[in-house]
Design brief:
mainly alpha, 14 helices, about 55% helix
Length: about 300
């Protein structure tokens, strides 16, 4: 065997040794298989967790202790500090002595021009204390902002406006990605006089994927009990869960007590045909109490209603 052959054999042995060492090391460090563990069983929910109202992200502080002398000062809204914004003025009127139109124009320019958050927040704080539908264009612009704090402040600003003009803003807010903001937006209509246009808002909220928003829609509906809200009550009876349907039946009973001649029809046509047994029983109980008739089936009540409707 020559010297060259010896070198080849030695090199081969070295390579083999390295491969064997690598295989041994890999086998040693190999992770041990994790034994199978069955997934824990889902816990059954026996009762719904009570809803806790969200605290607003931003509180608009409204001081009413300023003197009338402050209202006589001729200063622009841009220089007005938030704490002095609310004074003794007629409810629903713009603050006298201030350039509300100029403030709205400045706010719109800030949003269109991509101003920084600090400037937009300052303008919206001023907008939030006006309490008049004149500022709705600025609020609508703020509701389209990417910053959730600014959108939340826009909703807070709408709460100070007791006018049906806010409905467009509420409908826009109910399309927001933030469920907390959608729930909060419904509070804006709490003080409005019931009118047919509010049905669109209530039904939009009753169809919301978030339970808290749907529950708040029912809360608002209890504050807007009127014949003109019948489409919302009918919608809740058709599409709501058992709680929503029972709430709708209670409100319809309240309407009938107050003299409404239209309240019995949805109780019969929707309540008696509910998929929930407790809702059907409640509908029968209400009908028997309100009419004095000892009827039980859907067919009997339909026949009675057709013979006695006014």
């Amino acid at each position: 065997m020559t010297f060259r052959d010896g070198i080849k054999i030695f090199g081969t042995l070295v390579v083999v040794a390295i491969v064997v060492w690598a295989l041994a090391l890999g086998f040693k460090n190999r992770e041990k298989p994790v034994p199978y563990q069955p997934r824990p069983a889902r816990r059954e929910v026996t009762e719904r967790k009570p809803r806790t109202r969200r605290r607003p992200k931003i509180n608009v502080v409204q001081e009413t202790s300023q003197t009338n002398a402050a209202a006589e000062e001729t200063i622009s809204m841009r220089e007005l500090k938030h704490e002095r914004a609310v004074m003794f003025v007629p409810e629903g009127d713009p603050i006298p002595g201030f350039d509300t139109k100029g403030l709205v124009e400045d706010t719109l320019a800030a949003f269109r021009g991509g101003a920084d958050k600090e400037k937009k927040m300052k303008l919206m704080y001023d907008i939030a204390v006006i309490g008049d539908k004149m500022v709705m264009p600025a609020i609508l612009a703020a509701l389209e902002d990417k910053d959730p704090d600014i959108r939340t402040l826009a909703v807070e600003a709408m709460k100070a406006i007791d006018d049906p003009a806010i409905t467009e803003g509420v409908e826009k807010a109910l399309r927001d990605a933030d469920p907390d903001l959608r729930e909060e937006a419904l509070e804006c209509i709490a003080t409005l006089t019931p009118e047919p246009g509010l049905n669109d808002i209530i039904m939009q909220a009753l169809n919301d994927p978030e339970e808290s928003v749907r529950e708040n829609a029912l809360d608002m509906l209890t504050m807007l009990v009127d014949d003109c809200m019948m489409p919302s009550l009918d919608y809740a009876l058709k599409n709501g869960d058992a709680d929503a349907q029972e709430t709708a039946l209670s409100l319809l009973e309240q309407l009938h007590d107050s003299g409404s001649h239209n309240a019995l029809q949805p109780i019969i046509e929707q309540g008696l045909l509910s998929e929930f047994n407790e809702v059907r029983q409640m509908a029968v109980s209400i009908l028997q109490t309100q009419t004095g008739q000892d009827l039980t089936t859907y067919e009997q009540w339909v026949k009675w209603y057709e013979e006695n409707r006014k």
